[in-house]
Amino acid sequence: MKSRVTKDEQNILSAIMNDVANKIGNPIFELWFDHTVQWNLSGSTLSISAPTAFAMERIRRVYQRDIAEVACSTKGRLLQLEFTVAPTENELTSSTSQDDQNLLETTAHVSPLTVPTSRAAHDETSTLNAQPRPTFSNLVCGASNQIAFGASQAIVESPGTISPLFVYGPSGSGKTHLLQSIWDEFRGRVKPGRAMYLTAEQFTTHFLEGLQGKGLASFRRRYRDVDVLLIDQIEFFVGKSATTLEFHYTIDSLLRSGKQLVFSAKAPATEIVGLGADLVARLSSGLVCNIAPPDESMRLQIAQQYCSRHQLDISSEIVLMLVRRVQPDARHVQGALNRIRILQQVAGTGLTLRQAEEQLNDLFQCVQRPVGIQDIEKAICKTFGLDKKSLRSNGKIKSISHPRMLAMWLARKYTRAAYSEIGEFFGNRAHTTVISANRRVASWIKADASITMAYGECRVADAIKRVEAHF
Q1: Which of 123, 149, 182 is the last residue of a domain?
Q2: What is the count of structural domains for the chain?
Q3: Of 118, 306, 328, 342, whose Cβ has the fewest other Cβ atoms within 10 Å?
Q4: Which domain holds residue 238?
Q5: Which residues of the chain have pLDDT under 50?
């Protein structure tokens, strides 16, 4: 049982933590000593508890000396350092065998600056390599997905009250993880087969199989007799009229029964051309949530979680560097970590920061590919539901002129094209028109103004993010 920390000990502990952060740098401290790492001071013993054996072993091996020096300076004498692996809540409440309990609660008792041999960091390697089942517990939540995350928890607690839930965002933003986490929660609450998750491609395949095998009635019973239906990547339905119609009728049937529906796509339904107005209205009738790419702090957590799960022994400086430069897709972070892992295995030693930057340079260039005027035009047309002919026309109505000005502003931001070149591309306009458009958009952003889109008004800043997501 953990001993009670006195007020004086808490003050000393806070001072030690602040000094350690200053010594190793705040970004690195936040990476390896986040809220899951617990500090406790009792008498002459300073205890640090990490959530996994890998994290505990790395903290002990890499930062033990720094912690000991800071603790000695703050306390005025040497302290005994104790590094432990904290059992999870399930492990605390469930009964386990003696061997399992010894593994879960492996403790490294060390005197200052001594390095004992630990077996915990090397155990259970076979399970660490397995891909974990997506759940809410291993989903990193932050500013980019907090609304969608909150809505997901709400529908789990009260199914059918917010239906359908429609989440959208670019690849790698965590849409699939979120849907599968919801599915995982419902599978434990409803009868087998009453909660179903699948992609739009799988739905299409099953529908076509039903048509060809004359099993359409069976197909409809399978998908309309459920309590929860989650379909991922619904933009796949575009251009498949028969499947889209069946999907539409399936939604109608389930909504009339008060069932829970959850869908995802790369863009809001209003911007997916080809679904039809009625279907778009139904998809948008519940709650629509945007999921943006993970920000730097979220990518740090994702990287730390990935390193811990796969026991990747990569320096904190390299981890911090790659999460800052490999963006916005979290998958690129995992790919970069795996490359560093293999390179270190081949070299037989850890890489320096400079070596890591050199080895990942092609990945950085790939992720940060140049954006051309054609890319901007395509993204604007897709976001605002326009065609190229309209965007380049002399039309002066707001639904055309404002997206055109936004396209010119983005062209100046992302390309090296001159004003005259941009003006010529967007309908042979004078360079002064482009200058005026840039000033106009800048004033919109400063005033937090709105711009008209197909489904209504939208903040200019949000509209820009949606356009940039298509690059």
Answers
A1: 123
A2: 4
A3: 342
A4: 137-290
A5: 1-3, 89-129
